[in-house]
Amino acid sequence: MRPDLKVEGPIQYDAAIDPKVAAVKIKTHSEVAGRANVFVFPDLNTGNNTYKAVQQATGAIAMGPVMQGLSKPVNDLSRGCTVADIINTVCVTSVQAMQAKQGAGAAKSAAAAAAAAGVPQAAAAAA
């Protein structure tokens, strides 16, 4: 367990990211509402649709899906991915492979792997 992490939910997406919407919708004290930075969706379809909508609407760099917990580093690409998406995924997968070879694969998160690869901060949705 990580008591230092603030986890709440379910919170609707608009209330999770917009403090003004959160103030109207969330009637209890919340340290997450309006400031959430990690989103967990109920199924693959919802997560996939949401991250693609955010990526297209904002021009954000979307990383993922980044798979963890497998015996070998394997990641996936969308049929609609760009060259930049391919390069970012190759960078993350390469770092995962290097960490696994050094025995540190499980100790690092996908975000740390992306940072180690020099990939810019990314907007991602967990499915």
Automatic annotation (TrEMBL):
Annotated ranges, domain Phosphate acetyl/butaryl transferase: 2-93
Domain of life according to the entry: Eukaryota
Enzyme class: transferase
A GO molecular-function annotation: phosphate acetyltransferase activity
EC number: 2.3.1.8
Assigned keywords, A-Z: Acyltransferase, Transferase
UniProt cross-references to InterPro entries, sorted A to Z: Phos_Acetyltrans/Butyryltrans, PTA_PTB
PANTHER family: PHOSPHATE ACETYLTRANSFERASE (PTHR43356)
Protein name: Phosphate acetyltransferase
